[in-house]
Every structure is written in structure tokens, then in C-alpha cells.
Write a structure and sequence with these properties.
Blueprint: H1 4-24, H2 29-38, H3 46-54, H4 62-66, H5 69-74, E1 79-83, E2 89-98, E3 101-108, E4 114-116, H6 123-140, E5 151-154, H7 159-162, H8 165-168, E6 175-179, H9 183-187, H10 189-207, H11 211-222, E7 235-237
Parallel strand pairs: 4-5, 5-6, 6-7
Antiparallel strand pairs: 1-2, 2-3, 3-4
Helix pairs in contact: 1-2, 10-11
């Protein structure tokens, strides 16, 4: 059984190989790395079976990829499609927020393009969105440009779910939704970070930690916090609120 980090790596190789096929007509080095990594797995292991179904797509163009049984079973380029009992198509989009952590974002295939979550603001997020939007447009024929986005729902106030917002609103300005208790995380981010830093410093000082170690811990905590800037929330959600597509908010405090 693969560890969490190994699973992320395997999914990354699949996505890279599939995107390479779409753009160049060949899988590229990612497929070789994937095959080598999986070589000691049993032949009937899930990823081994997926790999064997991917290989025959060698040389396929976008139209051939779109209609393949592979896409229907496994998705493509970091994207999987699910259909609700009511017939709505939901696209799960894997976005690399941190080196060993992906964020699952969701595109709702409704009249007004809607996303749930958007990933962190690290460069890998922007790189992944560039690739995923190409796949969405060419393979799935939906959401071919960020400028089409009309609604963005932030599920909760962790940076891997909202951090890409400042980059997004440079090219598009969707209506932004967030629960009322997390809205201040987006709107008053700079103040929140300062206050959290002070609280952490007080805690470490009272713990008796050496001052140089306290300073190092605060520097580590604050590192990278300046890549996000305050973003206004247009709609404050509550338990029971209705979001685009007809879904209802279920408030589950915690993560």
C-alpha cells in the first residue's frame, strides 16, 4: 500500500503524463518515472491497471482522448468527473498547494461557472491551474478560461483553499462566498497574521524557550505569509445558505 506522499506523487505523474500527451502527442518522462515507481507493485494493483489502460492512448489527439474509455473511468490531467443523482456534473480538480499536498477543488457545470476552493498562492498553484484549464477546455469542453468564472465558494479559511485569490482577481472577479466566521480570514488577513504572531510569541516566551529559538519560530511562522493580500467577501454564508447550483451549506465547525 502506498503512503500518502507516494499516492500524491503517483497522481502527479499521471497528471503530468496526460497533460504532456494532450499538448505534445507523447507522454514524456513522467510516464517512465511512473512505470519505474510502480514496477514492484502487483500486476492487479489499481495504479498498475490504470497505467496499462493509459498506454494505448499514445499519440491520441484531444477528440480521441475525450471519447476514450480511459477518461470515463479515470478522468484526465488531474481532473475527475462525478454526476449527482440530479444529473449535475461536478469536476474534481487536483491543485498542488504545497510540495506534498494537493487541494481538491470542484467545478460545478451549471449556467454560471462556479468553483469551490482554489488552492494556495504558491507558484505550483498557478502552474496547475494553467494546465487544468487547458484540459477542462480541450478534453471536457467546459471552463476554458478563468475569465468565465462567475462564482467562487471558499469552503473554509485555510490558505490551501483560498490563497490563490489575489492572483485570480487580477484576471477575473467572481462573486466570492465564504462562511461568516471565516470571512475575516480573507478580508482582514494582514491584521490576523500580526495578531496570531503576537499570540504565538507570548506563548513561546511564557514557555521558557530561549529567545533565539522564539525568534526562529516566529520567523518560520511568518515566512510566506506575505504572498496573500486582503480580499473582500461578497456573500457571507451561514448554516442552511443556498449556493449556486442549489446546494445547501452544512456548517461543520472544525476542519
Amino acid at each position: 500500500m502506498l503512503t500518502y506522499k507516494e499516492e500524491i506523487r503517483v497522481q502527479r505523474w499521471f497528471a503530468e503524463a496526460e497533460v504532456s500527451l494532450l499538448e505534445t502527442g507523447v507522454f514524456g518522462s513522467a510516464l517512465d518515472e511512473l512505470a519505474a515507481f510502480l514496477s514492484d507493485q502487483p500486476a492487479d494493483e489499481l495504479h498498475r491497471r490504470r497505467l496499462e489502460q493509459l498506454r494505448p492512448l499514445d499519440g491520441f489527439d484531444a477528440d480521441q482522448i475525450r471519447t476514450s474509455s480511459y477518461v470515463k473511468q479515470w478522468g484526465f490531467g488531474g481532473i475527475q468527473v462525478f454526476v449527482t443523482s440530479g444529473g449535475m456534473r461536478i469536476y474534481q480538480i487536483q491543485i498542488r498547494s504545497f510540495p506534498n499536498h494537493d487541494t481538491a477543488c470542484y467545478y460545478l457545470d451549471i449556467d454560471e461557472p462556479t468553483l469551490i476552493d482554489i488552492g494556495s498562492g504558491l507558484p505550483s498553484t498557478g502552474e496547475d491551474w494553467e494546465d487544468r484549464i487547458k484540459v477542462m477546455g480541450r478534453v471536457f469542453r467546459v471552463f476554458s478560461s478563468e475569465t468565465q468564472l462567475r462564482h467562487l465558494i471558499i469552503s473554509h479559511g485555510h490558505v490551501d483553499h483560498y490563497g490563490y485569490l489575489p492572483q485570480l482577481i487580477q484576471v477575473a472577479r467572481p462573486q466570492i462566498y465564504c462562511h461568516e466566521l471565516d470571512s475575516r480570514v480573507l478580508e482582514q488577513y494582514d491584521e490576523r497574521i500580526v495578531m496570531a504572531g503576537r499570540t504565538l510569541r507570548n506563548y513561546l516566551d511564557e514557555s521558557g524557550l530561549d529567545q533565539d529559538k522564539v525568534d526562529s519560530a516566529i520567523e518560520l511562522f511568518m515566512g510566506g505569509k506575505n504572498f496573500f493580500s486582503n480580499v473582500p467577501v461578497d456573500v457571507r454564508l451561514q448554516h442552511g445558505s443556498v449556493i449556486p447550483g442549489g446546494g445547501r451549506v452544512i456548517h461543520t465547525p472544525g476542519h
